[in-house]
Amino acid sequence: MSAAAFSRQVARSALRTSTRNTFSTSTRHAFRQSGRRFYSSEPPKPSSGSGPALGALAGLAVVGGGYYFYQSQNGSPKVFNPTKEDYQKVYNEIAGRLEEKDDYDDGSYGPVLVRLAWHASGTYDKETKTGGSNGATMRFAPEGDHGANAGLKHARDFLEPVKAKFPWITYSDLWTLAGACAIQEMQGPVVPWRPGRADKEAAACTPDGRLPDAAQGTKHLRDIFYRMGFNDQEIVALAGAHALGRCHTDRSGFDGPWTFSPTVLTNDYYTLLLDEKWHIRKWDGPKQYEDKTKGLMMLPADYALIEDKAMKPWVQKYAKDNDLFFKDFSEVVVKLFELGVPFKEGSERMTFKPTNA
Ligand code: HEM
Prior knowledge:
The chain is 41% helix and 6% strand. The chain is built from 13 helices and eight strands.
């Protein structure tokens, strides 16, 4: 087992002994320490391209809220009506791959899977009812090539073997299910999920510019997130996802993680935002903030949350209360992943058992 895998396992077993939604200070501290150790300074290895076989997608559709119509490998049409158990199998497969493939970034593909699900969903426009997770149009250029989606091919490629094993699931359902799974497997709250998304063709790609620009402030964040149908509290709750993962100079141009435990969801994003002294980093890159250890960062869009009179109180609430953050984060992520999806009336959300519970 690699040092990274070992340190992650130690941290996880420590976390397992505490209640799922509450972190004791000592547990957090222990995790931060191990989190520091398994930082990787190497850039992610480029993964080999394996896009979807367009032929196989041609007949892929969701009928109503759960029936999938798809073409099997020998070309014959199949109809499959999956049960909750079938989705739990998909969940387990994603969780298993997350556990097994720990050679990426800080030891987990989890953060980039969350980002894939968010970028697939966050293109939604409530006026025109276009975009959103229903379609998985990021499979195609131009959307896959939008600057905001740089690096998400790693997440899409990670999910290809899962798609190959469960060909009946649409990419749109798979990506959002993977987002929910990654949040749960990174010790986050339960994220209820339901199927019903159909894949669309390239013509349904959304125009560039629907996702937020990290260099801007809260006026821009409101323009972007109100367009999806969110309010100020929901914007702040969603931003807490930045407890996870990191920025990459070869993707967004920004650099570094927001927290010391980028593969475990906590409310540390908010506590750090409030408690650390943030300075503008002196470097040959875009404007970003750094803490005094120079190990952590905040984007201008993150820092803007504590400069905004209406948003700061939510940062303070989530910093004080991890349970409140988990509750609100789960609710707002469910809403995000369902934007613009025409679910069958009465379709029920499922909850999946985390593998680390
Ligand atoms: C509030 C507006 C937001 C802005 C301006 C923003 C911007 C960014 C940027 C610039 C990165 C770095 C990308 C890279 O270089 O790899 C990033 C990463 C990330 N974002 Fe956001 N984001 C926002 C909201 C969200 C939301 C709503 C979520 C999920 C609910 C999210 C989840 C993530 C995650 C998990 C990563 C880390 C990805 C990785 O480690 O590869 N972000 N974000």
